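Q: Okay, next protein. This is Glycosyltransferase 2-like domain-containing protein from Candidatus Woesebacteria bacterium RIFOXYB1_FULL_38_16. I've checked the sequence twice, so it should be correct. Can you predict the 3D structure?
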Amino acid sequence: MIPTYNEIENIDKLLSDLSLRQKKSKKHKIEVLIVDDNSPDGTGEVVKQYQNKNKWIYLLTGKKKGLGSAMIRGYKYALGQLKPDVIVTNEADFAFDFKHLNYMLGSLEKGNDVVVGSRHVGVGKTSGWTVSRRLNHWVANTIFATWVAGVGEVYDHNGAFRAIRVKGVLDKINFDLLKTKGFAFFFYFLYETAKVTNKFDEFPVIYRFRQRGESKVSFNIKYIKTYIRDVFEYMSLAIKIRFEKTKKWLT
């Protein structure tokens, strides 16, 4: 499952790459769900072209309400319509390499329920980030997700590259109660999955800054307003989680 917005320069290569992996896969049946927020650049149209020849590619479109909203919409559709055993999520810009897919599925077969590609274990790292973006990530990942919220199942709370078992994990989560709109979804969702399982696996990956297409980061008024909303949501959820954990500990 991959969320997209204005990924016209990546979507063709992405689907070509996934097509090769799907054809080579003998052990696992792979289906791809693209969750597109009505991209004005034609991303959805490219997906439709691939759908004509590949029945295992699905497209879910909707109004742009934020990354978190897209993820929730995608999970609900996948669980309700596609009935998978596992849902793997990733980004469309090749920030995380799909070559790790076999490891992730193998880890689930060994008994883990949540497998997370991490920039903060082993040889994992980020490549191509500016100092300001590294600082922004450190504040969100370390100060708020780890120190304030106390989410400690993994070290990388905000990466999109994950594989999660459906039975006993995703099917136990009420997605109608999840209201996160922005990037806070990823760390908050770890908190939700930790309520139903403690079988987490974290393995090192290298996060590479996009080579094609434009970064979603900009300095126009609309983006700044959305960014402020998402930051406030992130901090609020971190405090909410800490409160819930403290309340549970006291009782």
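A: Here is a summary of the prediction. DSSP finds seven helices and nine strands in the chain. The longest strand covers residues 32-36.
Q: Noted. On to the next one.
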